[in-house]
Amino acid sequence: MDDALRALARAAEGRPDDAAAGWALAQALARAGDRRGERRAIARLARAGDLAAREAHARLAPWPSRSGEGLTFGARLGPAGPLRVERRAPVDLAPPVLAGATQDVVLVASPEGLVAHDARDLAPRWRAPLSGPAWYHVGVVAGDVLVLDGQDLVLLDGAAGAPVARAALGGTVAAVSLHVDLAAVELASSDEERTLALVDVGARFGRVLWSRPVGHLSSFDAAGPWLVVASYRAPGELEVLRLETGDRVWASGAPAGAGARHWSLLCADAHGLVVHGAGGDEEDRTAFVCELEPTGHPRWRVEGLDVEAFGQSFAMDGDVFLAAVRRREGRDLICVERRTGQRRWSTPVGAAGEALVVAAGRCHALGLEEMERTLRRPGGPRWGGGPDDPREAAARTLYGDREPVYDVRRRLVLTTVGLEDGRAEGTLADDHTLAEIRVDALALPDAVVALAGQGLLRLEA
Questions:
Q1: Which pLDDT score, from 0 to 100, does residue 396 have?
Q2: What does the buried/exposed string (b/e) look like for 139-164 if buried means 16 or more CB atoms within 10 Å of the residue's CB?
Q3: How far is 255 from 437, CA to CA, in rounded Å?
Q4: 386 CB contacts (<8 Å, ≥6 apart)?
Q5: Fewer Cβ atoms within 10 A, N terminus or C terminus of the chain?
Q6: Whole-model pTM?
Q7: Phi and psi dihedrals of 324, rounded to 5?
Q8: What is the reported pLDDT for 256?
């Protein structure tokens, strides 16, 4: 890096809210042919709130996170209409999860490793090993790929998979939550001693910005400008920190909803946090969704929204929140106004809604529909007695409950719904049957990619 670039870099780092300084650095890096440096400069601008940078960053890392900004700007991209299956490719990992995407590749991970498939023809492009219990913590940073390797964070080149940078953090990395080019990291030195740290994984890769001792965490999510933390020691409570400084904003169990026993963050941006809660006591398991203001005060609460909080059955697009809610038969796709908590519309989507992808003013709801169920092994008592028969109790102790076992065949289904009016614009039922029970999906700038069982599908308008 020459003296002129160093001066621009110092100016951009010293004034992170100065968009002009940030863009001057990005453009200078582009002229010098440093594409990685250019992408990192754009990522830093996106995190600081520059609108043009956020849209550009959504193309570099189109995988939506729990960050409302990422969801909103990513939602402007993608195919603008009902979808069809354009390409399909097998996946040779088990069990696979869709771990993210760059402009060039779609990432599929499993305990067996990480495979990058070409984003257009879905052919495998490169492979990398994954290790440790947190193998599934894979992220995309300005077009490159962040993975865990025991005590290290490792950055891989997004196009080729070669290591670009490595950072040792002084402890086993138990979990990571990524926001643009910052990684919140839980470090474990023992079962009881844990440290929560914020690490720069962009231009200053591996630099620890702050750290603090914590107990064993049940979850933590970097979303928008916040870091939302829950501890095993205080179930039903949450703590909200400012992501970039680690300063506490508020900590309480009450804002998550009166007496909620269980809660989880769905998504958040600078304007608020949307959380899912369940039941005030063992008798009351009513599920609800509420949005909290940055101060922690509830803005609205909607009862009866039983959302699969750790999946993809929810999304945020600017001023609306979307959720696929389980009903007795199938799911309803519900759109809630974030300002008031009023429902804008509700549309039945059947078996779809297990994964939601918002793109180009539409919500694509995907799911797996049961086609055939064959009994493999019948259930029933082992000894012919009732549940209080001591021989039956002994058999359960030795062999477990003898429940009937079925072989089930499913197919991928998809419903496309317009965000403005909730009108279903098109449906898709894929002819290929599957034995799997889940589907993952993400939006690319020109397509939606879905992982259903051992098959990767590219869907286009």
A1: 61
A2: bbbbbbbbbbbeebbbbbebbebeeb
A3: 34
A4: 392
A5: N
A6: 0.86
A7: -95, 115
A8: 44
User: Residue 383: is its pLDDT beyond 60?
Assistant: no
Distances (CA, A) of 33 to 16, 132, 147, 285, 312: 23, 36, 26, 57, 37
Instruction: Please tell me the distance from the alpha carbon of residue 415 to that of residue 433, in angstroms, as a whole number.
Output: 18
Question: Which two structure tokens, joined as six digits, stand for 285?
Answer: 């398991």
At residue 388, the 3 state secondary structure works out as coil
- The whole-number pLDDT of residue 366 equals 92
Measured CA to CA in angstroms, residue 403 lies from 380, 386, 390, 407 at distances of 7, 15, 18, 13
Mean pLDDT of the chain: 83
Distance CA 122, CA 87 (A): 8
Region 74-460: CATH code: 2.130.10.10
Q: Which residue has the tokens 């005590």?
A: 151
Q: Which long-range contacts (CB under 8 A, 24 or more apart) does 186-194 make?
A: 186/214, 186/217, 186/220, 191/216, 192/216
Pick from 13, 71, 76, 80: which is nearest to 45 by CA? 13
Strands of 439-443's sheet in order across = 84-90, 455-460, 448-452, 439-443
pLDDT at site 257? 46
List the chain domain ranges.
Answer: 3-62, 74-460
What percentage of the chain exceeds 70 in pLDDT? 84
* Most confident option among 124-133, 341-350, 439-448: 341-350
**What region, left, alpha or beta, does residue 40 occupy, with left being phi > 0 and alpha being psi -120 to 50 degrees?**
alpha
pLDDT tens by residue, 293-341: 888 888 998 887 777 766 788 888 878 999 998 887 889 999 999 889 9
Cα 409–Cα 412–Cα 414 angle in degrees, nearest 5: 150
Do the Cβ atoms of 321 and 289 come closer than 8 Å?
yes
pLDDT in tens, 19-74: 999 999 999 999 999 999 999 999 999 888 888 888 888 877 765 556 666 556 66
CA–CA separation, 461 and 23 (whole Å): 34
Element housing 36 (H / E): helix 35-48
| Residue located via tokens 């909080």 | 309
What pLDDT is attached to residue 30? 92
> Would you state the pLDDT for residue 155?
95
**6-15: Cβ within 8 A, 24+ apart:** 9/203, 12/41, 12/44, 13/203
- The residues near 39 (Cβ < 8 Å, ≥ 6 apart) are 60, 142, 143, 144
- Of 221, 256, 226, 222, the closest CA to residue 238 belongs to 256
